[in-house]
Design goal:
This protein has 365 residues and is an alpha/beta fold. It contains eleven helices and 17 strands. The strands form four sheets. Strands 6-7-8-9-10-11-12 form a seven-stranded parallel β-sheet. A four-stranded mixed β-sheet has the order 3-2-1-4, with no helix packed on it.
């Protein structure tokens, strides 16, 4: 179905429109009911946004536990663009790049500074695994998909190396002119030693985690290092995952008006099937339950993510752009939601994905 019309879709602001897709591109965005095309898809009652972008996934199925098939965590989730968050280092980035060409989902990646990537989950425990020359060469060879460097700076990953891997990552960031995504978790190293090394455009992922070494103090106030990072322009990414999202911390962030930058899942096979992640729609529903508006929630997986990627076309619905769209409903039905700490919340509404247009191809979810 190369040419078709999505009829009577609603933007998140409630405006009803028709979207005409021709030869993989958005041909026209027009008044609801007026679009003409070879095939008409009635989308009455559905919302449309630019295609959802998940800034933190694990899409290299050969690695266990952190791996999954690209389209299982991409288009089948209503997500048209994924960013693999450091599954692969220099040793395997070629394999990820090759598999991305066979997928329907658009794929970008953070390159793990450890050449072995997530082949092991203590990938920064030996400094010789950080091969600077291989990092620089991989960035040159795979510049079409690599958007940044990934360093997981928590106790189980760095072991006795403390903050040293992050200092090396900072130097590699300067050499390659790429931003860092830094995973935060259990210490040491202490959060006060990690965050000051991050600069404008770098990403803190797992910023709402409920571990002791987090960005909020015992009174649920933001630590000074977080406030300073926000002033510097460091980007905050959710990265829900199995162990990195706390309702209590997220509620504290909202109380203190910490801006919602990007919502990502940190999804892989195990937490997709068994929870607590399940899907992008489930994670977005959690933010609706926290009191964020639909506009704020969807912006966090469209406009905000696209702007961080420096690909604004991925965050808009505009004639002439490649057709990457997400269709979803907001159901007025109760749902029990669970965070990474086992805490539960009940929401009276939930987001449900219905389909995507991925580079002009309509795919039902």
């Amino acid at each position: 179905m190369e040419n078709f019309v999505l009829r009577h879709v609603k933007r998140v602001n409630g405006e009803e429109i028709d979207i005409v897709i021709e030869e993989g591109k958005i041909a026209q965005v027009m008044m609801a009911g007026s679009g003409q095309g070879e095939h008409v898809i009635d989308c009455s009652g559905l919302f449309v946004s630019s295609g959802w972008i998940d800034l933190h996934v694990h899409a290299f199925p050969e690695f266990d536990p952190y791996g999954d098939e690209i389209d299982e965590i991409g288009v089948k989730q209503g997500v048209t663009t994924i960013v693999d968050a450091g599954s692969c280092g220099a040793d395997r980035i070629a394999d990820l790049a090759a598999s991305s060409k066979k997928a329907k989902t658009n794929v970008y990646a953070f390159l793990n500074i450890s050449r072995i990537g997530l082949e092991r989950i203590d990938e920064l425990s030996r400094l010789e695994w950080i091969d600077k020359g291989k990092v620089v060469q991989a960035v040159k060879d795979y510049k079409e998909i690599i958007v940044g460097l990934k360093a997981r700076i928590s106790k189980s990953v760095v072991c006795e190396n403390g903050i040293e891997p992050l200092k090396i990552a900072r130097a590699l960031s300067s050499e390659t002119d790429l931003p860092l995504m830094v995973h935060i978790g259990s210490g040491p190293p202490k959060i006060e030693d990690i965050i000051p090394l991050l600069e404008k455009g770098d990403v803190i992922t797992h910023y709402l985690n409920g571990k002791q070494n987090n960005l909020f103090d015992e009174h649920e106030n933001p630590r000074q290092v977080l406030k300073d990072a926000i002033k510097r322009g460091v980007h905050l990414d959710v990265g829900h995952g199995t162990a990195s999202f706390s309702f209590k911390v997220a509620e504290a962030a909202k109380r203190h008006h910490i801006a919602l930058n990007t919502i990502s899942t940190d999804i892989y096979r195990r937490n997709r099937i068994n929870g607590p992640v399940y899907s992008m729609a489930n994670v977005l529903t959690k933010f609706l339950s926290l009191g964020y508006s639909l506009e704020e929630v969807i912006a966090a997986v469209t406009i905000n993510a696209a702007n961080w990627l420096k690909k604004p076309e991925l965050g808009r619905i505009k004639a002439g752009d490649a057709a990457n769209l997400t269709l979803f409903a907001v159901k007025k039905e109760p749902i029990t939601l669970i965070d990474s700490e086992g805490e539960k919340r009940v929401s009276d509404q939930r987001i449900e994905t219905k389909g995507v247009v991925a580079n002009g191809e309509f795919i039902e979810c």
